[in-house]
User: Which sequence fits this backbone?
């Protein structure tokens, strides 16, 4: 199976902790707010304390001087660098020594600032970890930046604001490119980079061709020349604005970031044993597939996030029945730590329910003393769970997923989703379940639009998919659809905003069909009629791996791999041959033990503007079927509801949206990237209370030589220390009392 990003990032943090081995064994960890949040996604507090960390402190709060060395794990902001310097200035020594770990690359000016400050003699090391990205699942990562949807696609308010809007977008894309580069560096991967270059629409949002941002037009008569070379540089610069898509800009920035890192670290990427074929980064955006966020998905994770009130894809509140029959309010965390969740999340809901019931019945059989037959339905499971007080943890897991599955099926029936989804599938695929062109689509859709049982939200989804299927409709037809559905003006705005994602919504009598190079491929092996549509990202990854992806549609930024035949591109290990038509699809099964997984070629996909849970599923499914390590990430993960809400505010630059209630800023961009970065991670300083000074003998903090930056690729190997904070028997006095406090989990925030 694919190597987990969670484990990779966790190992990077643990290696940093273990590389610091002071003489007294114990050390202090100093972090900022953002680092604390990142650490909590891959490590528990106990895991950190187990690495001989006796105290965790926030750099932004008042701290008493300590007689220990400290690990500073921080964002490389000017503010944090100044705080480090303050800890060792004006006769003050906060710790016996400082080991600095920055989650991003530290700029040269800030490095010079550190090494020329009074803190320099106390600094033991400066290292860069390059782990500033959010790992959400084993194969997914995120920027957690939903506001970028508006910065990428919202049209500037007027002609005069194009230049400012574009500059701010480029500033944001520069930040995102560095996060993607961090991921590649963490994976020790210098990938080929491809990007989506659509031919059926112009660049969108602030990047659309405009007089303010476009190069001057070429002189009169230059269009006579037939060759690009003869037409001259002026003409080429003028026409370049027509291809400045967000994917191209972002991919070029990632290439630049990785080349700069390579220049500073010539051994990047370090050789692996066994050798791993060079991977590929594919940069695309939400506009490539506007169908996927609208369509109803019936695999477990996607369906639950669509129909249930799950917060941020991880938090779900439900009622848990106790052993005495009373109901308790519970908040569950859906994560890779839940084995039941990871087992069923990519299964079709019907298969997921069958799997839950089979596992539950096996659980019953494995525990002697339980009387009665197995569960035959979800309700049977519910009754039987109440009689298992001695297996609390397992009871809660089964109860959670029982509740989620049952709630989804209740909504499925109540909202007539079988009828709604049939219309959606015909629109999305352009075919009926029998493989024919749909001829009665309007007749099937209008009764659902007229009916009160179907929510306006689902009506919007059907109308949007129908308009995209028809490649735009006459204004009068669109007005009638809105009238049938009784959509409010705001709901109509959501559909109309599709034009800002490159879709055509209005069509005249003489308009020809839009020629799109990337199209949905018929799925001959799909056994569920309501799951025929597959996200376009599936086609992109499959064609790339098989060396069939059109290079005019997905060009390489710089160097491209030498020509490979489809067979060569997957030759490293045998590809599983099990068909998805089989009783249990191949992605439900464990990878064969004979298949090596430590050197599989990687494919990294980044979707600017938000990725769907159906696209996340494809990364896992294709990893198994194509025998590749496939990771997918985005600016954020979206649900159909969130996408709909964002479309409503798209023309308003996000005003009223959840991500940016006041809209995206229209101020001038920052003077430098460091200034932008400092503002992004700024943490106000508290009012400092009176403090005492700690006097330490001068020879305890002498540096052994000139300080230099060390990158994560050359950091120290794991230290052979297994002593934990629980092994405190040899300590006594005040230190012993202090350790008892730390065992209780006191984060100093």
Assistant:
């Amino acid at each position: 199976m694919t190597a987990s990003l969670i484990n990779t990032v966790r190992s990077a943090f643990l290696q940093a902790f273990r590389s610091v081995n002071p003489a007294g064994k114990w050390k202090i960890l100093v972090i900022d707010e953002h680092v604390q949040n990142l650490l909590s996604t891959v490590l528990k507090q106990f895991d950190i304390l187990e690495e001989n960390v006796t105290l965790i402190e926030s750099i932004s709060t008042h701290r008493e001087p300590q007689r220990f060395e400290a690990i500073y794990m921080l964002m490389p902001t000017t503010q944090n660098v100044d705080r480090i310097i303050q800890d060792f200035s004006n006769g003050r020594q906060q710790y016996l020594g400082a080991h600095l770990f920055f989650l991003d690359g530290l700029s040269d000016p800030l490095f010079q600032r550190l090494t020329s400050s009074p803190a320099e003699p106390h600094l033991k090391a400066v290292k860069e970890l390059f782990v500033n990205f959010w790992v959400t699942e084993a194969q997914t990562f995120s920027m957690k930046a939903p506001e970028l949807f508006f910065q990428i696609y919202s049209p500037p308010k007027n002609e005069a604001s194009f230049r400012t809007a574009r500059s701010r977008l480029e500033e944001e894309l520069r930040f995102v490119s560095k996060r993607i580069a961090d991921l590649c560096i963490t994976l020790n991967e210098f990938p080929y980079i491809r990007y989506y270059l659509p031919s059926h629409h112009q660049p969108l949002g602030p990047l659309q061709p405009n007089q303010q941002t476009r190069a001057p037009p070429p002189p009169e008569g230059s269009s006579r020349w037939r060759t690009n070379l003869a037409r001259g540089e002026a003409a080429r610069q003028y026409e370049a604005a027509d291809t400045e898509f967000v994917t191209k800009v972002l991919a070029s920035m990632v290439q630049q970031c990785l080349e700069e890192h390579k220049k500073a670290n010539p051994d990047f990427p370090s050789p692996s044993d066994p050798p791993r074929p060079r991977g590929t980064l594919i940069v695309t955006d939400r506009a490539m597939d506007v169908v996927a966020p609208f369509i109803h998905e019936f695999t477990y994770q996607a369906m639950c996030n669509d129909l249930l009130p799950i917060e941020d894809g991880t938090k779900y509140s439900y009622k848990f029945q106790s052993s005495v029959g009373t109901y308790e309010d519970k908040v569950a965390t859906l994560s890779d730590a839940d084995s039941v969740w990871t087992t069923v999340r990519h299964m079709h809901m019907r298969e997921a329910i069958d799997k839950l019931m089979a596992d539950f019945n096996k659980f019953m059989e494995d525990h002697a003393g339980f009387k009665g037959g197995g569960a035959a339905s979800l309700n049977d499971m519910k009754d039987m769970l109440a009689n298992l007080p001695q297996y609390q943890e397992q009871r809660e897991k089964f109860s959670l997923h029982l509740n989620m599955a049952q709630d989804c099926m209740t909504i499925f029936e109540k909202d007539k989703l079988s009828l709604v989804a049939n219309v959606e599938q015909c629109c999305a695929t352009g075919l009926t379940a029998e493989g024919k062109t749909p001829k009665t689509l309007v007749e099937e859709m209008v009764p659902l639009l007229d009916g009160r049982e179907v929510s306006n939200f689902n009506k919007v989804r059907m109308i949007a998919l129908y308009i995209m299927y028809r490649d735009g409709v006459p204004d009068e037809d669109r007005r009638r659809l809105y009238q049938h559905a009784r959509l409010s003006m705001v709901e109509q705005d959501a559909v109309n905003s599709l034009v800002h994602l490159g879709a055509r919504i209005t069509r005249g009598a003489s308009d020809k069909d839009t020629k799109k190079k990337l199209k949905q491929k018929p799925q001959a092996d799909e056994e569920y009629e309501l799951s025929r549509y597959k996200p376009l990202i599936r086609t992109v990854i499959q064609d790339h791996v098989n060396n069939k992806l059109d290079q005019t549609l997905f060009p390489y930024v710089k160097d491209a791999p030498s020509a490979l035949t489809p067979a060569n591109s997957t030759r490293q290990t045998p590809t599983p041959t099990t068909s998805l038509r089989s009783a249990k699809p191949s992605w439900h099964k464990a990878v064969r033990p004979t298949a090596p997984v430590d050197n599989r070629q990687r494919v990294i996909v980044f979707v600017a503007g938000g990725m769907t849970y159906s696209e996340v599923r494809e990364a896992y499914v294709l990893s198994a079927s194509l025998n590749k390590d496939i990771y997918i990430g985005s600016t954020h993960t979206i649900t159909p509801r969130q996408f709909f809400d964002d479309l409503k505010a798209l023309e308003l630059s996000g005003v009223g949206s959840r991500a940016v209630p006041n809209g995206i800023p229209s101020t001038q961009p920052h003077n430098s990237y460091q200034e932008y970065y400092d503002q992004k991670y700024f943490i106000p300083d508290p009012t400092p209370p009176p403090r005492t000074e700690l006097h330490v003998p001068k020879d305890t903090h002498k540096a052994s030589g000139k300080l230099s930056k060390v990158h994560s690729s050359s950091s120290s190997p794991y230290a052979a220390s297994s002593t934990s904070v629980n092994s405190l028997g040899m300590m006594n006095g005040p230190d012993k009392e202090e350790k008892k406090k730390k065992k209780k989990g006191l984060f100093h925030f």
Notes: Confidence is low (pLDDT under 50) at residues 565-596, 696-704, 713-749. The first strand starts at residue 27 and ends at 31. Residues 653 and 664 are 6 Å apart (CA to CA).
